[in-house]
């Protein structure tokens, strides 16, 4: 236990051992940044400012809009691939900062946590990290929240076990340090680009639908038509009212009895926290640390990496996402044609691997957190 580990080290190693070595052992400056890491960093900063009581709720959108305006006026700014992608992304986050349901005022942002994992060989490793937001709900559950500005397609049922490893590691940390039972820990992703739409069906029961924030009313158009046709309004008025509601992306112009049949909330992806899964996670991460330590001990490391993990131009990650293999250094060395990835294929989880820095979770190994955790 002579080293403090961060989850980002494990993620980078699993994605590409060569990139891991270049970053953590050769200390190469590979960071390029991209529009998603740039926007994501601002998003996290605003949520941190809010929960640290440095800005108020109404300031969330004001601060965000100023940031976007400054970005748009910068001729050297990071760019989205298309105007359509840009408009959807910005409009979704505009809506989030105007309408997000915030947690209790006792929520803690960027809370440092520490976990100890153990490999099958009995080797122990200390991990530290920051929880985006943590609070205790009205039922006494400890809630861990991780903000995501990426697409929900990246968090499918098949991908969720991998995507949730960091959150589950933080749950392990809270259990180890504070003895919080796993059944009293809730972990979730707050998917900022989306909202959960609640609507009353014709049978009187409520149902939900997940929609992009900037067009949630448009997605309810047919349901609105069905409900409004049961009123004494004429067809032309109904169509005009719905068009206005969709254009404004709210239902303020609709009759009160219609509005009462719809409401929206943040869209959360809930992560199951249970002891069996945590044990498997402990084992997986501990064994992965053993692999990393063994790799670092190889004498001719560069030769080993070239032979064992050769660059594969047909591999999407190697060619498009790996910070090392997409670096100017590697391209010049290998005489490769500059072929940057379409950023629409990135989400905030792969953005930092590509070279951008997402948030403080990538800077876990700092004196500040060590002091907070260990005194």
TrEMBL record:
GO biological process: DNA repair
Pfam entry (one): PDDEXK_1
Domain PD-(D/E)XK endonuclease-like stretches: 5-232
Presence of the UniProt keyword Transmembrane in the record: no
Top-level taxon of the source organism: Bacteria
One GO MF term attached to the UniProt entry: ATP binding
Listed InterPro entries: PDDEXK-like_dom_sf, PDDEXK_AddAB-type, Restrct_endonuc-II-like
Keyword annotations from UniProtKB, A to Z: ATP-binding, DNA damage, DNA repair, DNA-binding, Helicase, Hydrolase, Nucleotide-binding, Plasmid
Protein name per its UniProtKB record: PD-(D/E)XK endonuclease-like domain-containing protein
Organism: Ligilactobacillus salivarius
């Amino acid at each position: 236990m002579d080293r403090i580990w961060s989850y980002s080290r494990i993620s980078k190693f699993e994605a590409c051992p060569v990139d891991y070595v270049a970053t953590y052992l050769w200390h190469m400056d590979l960071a390029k940044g991209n529009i998603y890491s740039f926007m994501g960093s601002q998003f996290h900063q605003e949520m941190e400012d809010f929960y640290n009581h440095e800005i108020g709720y109404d300031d969330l959108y004001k601060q965000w809009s100023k940031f976007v305006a400054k970005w748009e006026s910068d001729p050297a700014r990071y760019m989205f691939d298309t105007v359509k992608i840009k408009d959807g992304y910005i409009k979704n986050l505009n809506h989030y900062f105007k309408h997000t349901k915030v947690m209790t005022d006792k929520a803690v942002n960027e809370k440092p946590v520490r976990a100890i994992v153990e490999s099958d060989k009995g080797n122990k490793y200390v991990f530290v990290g920051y929880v985006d937001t943590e609070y205790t709900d009205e039922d006494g559950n400890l809630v861990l929240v991780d903000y995501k500005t990426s697409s929900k397609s990246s968090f499918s049922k098949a991908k969720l076990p991998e995507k949730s490893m960091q959150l589950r590691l933080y749950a392990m940390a809270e259990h180890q340090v504070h003895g919080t039972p796993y059944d009293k820990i809730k972990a979730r992703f707050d998917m900022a680009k989306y909202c959960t739409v609640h609507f009353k069906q014709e049978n009187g029961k409520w149902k939900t639908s997940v929609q992009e924030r900037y067009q949630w009313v448009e997605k309810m158009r047919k349901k609105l038509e069905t409900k409004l046709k049961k009123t004494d309004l004429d067809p032309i008025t109904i169509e005009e009212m719905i068009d206005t509601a969709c254009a404004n992306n709210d239902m303020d112009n609709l009759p009160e009895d219609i509005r009462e049949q719809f409401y929206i909330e943040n869209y959360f992806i809930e992560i199951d926290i249970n002891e069996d899964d945590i044990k498997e996670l402990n084992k997986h991460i501990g064994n992965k640390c053993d692999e990393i330590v063994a790799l670092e001990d190889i004498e001719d490391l560069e030769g080993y990496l070239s032979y064992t993990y050769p660059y594969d131009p047909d591999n999407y990650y190697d060619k498009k996402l790996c910070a090392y293999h997409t670096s100017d250094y590697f391209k010049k060395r290998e005489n490769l044609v500059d072929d940057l990835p379409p950023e629409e294929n990135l989400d905030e989880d792969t953005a930092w691997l590509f070279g951008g820095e997402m948030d403080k979770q990538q800077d876990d190994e700092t004196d500040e957190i060590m002091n907070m955790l260990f005194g």
